Amino acid sequence: MYPFERYMFHLKRKVKNLSKVEGSIVAQSVNEEASQFAEYYFPSDVQTKSRRPARHDDRNERAMYPVVVPELFSQVGRVSGKRKKRKLSEEECSHLHKYIVTNCEAIAEYER
Length: 112
Known about the structure:
DUF4218 domain-containing protein; DUF4218
């Protein structure tokens, strides 16, 4: 889309009163501008549109496990999409085993 068309789409979405389109666009623009200006005066703990955390933000939380887990496997995050269960193929299992043996220091003491 061209910038003008995108801007017109943005303006048309603001229209609430179809009998007075220009006044409706002006009223919504003033409302939007005032709310953006006012959010700078809210305390920092108030979540606003511009202060919204990132979509995949884990907020520096560390995973808590009942047993000691090597650092390699203690990554914190959220999955995207719907969760699915599946079994690893023999080839994937072999690749995973080689990766763990070569990259995990906690496993090194059990190597022969």
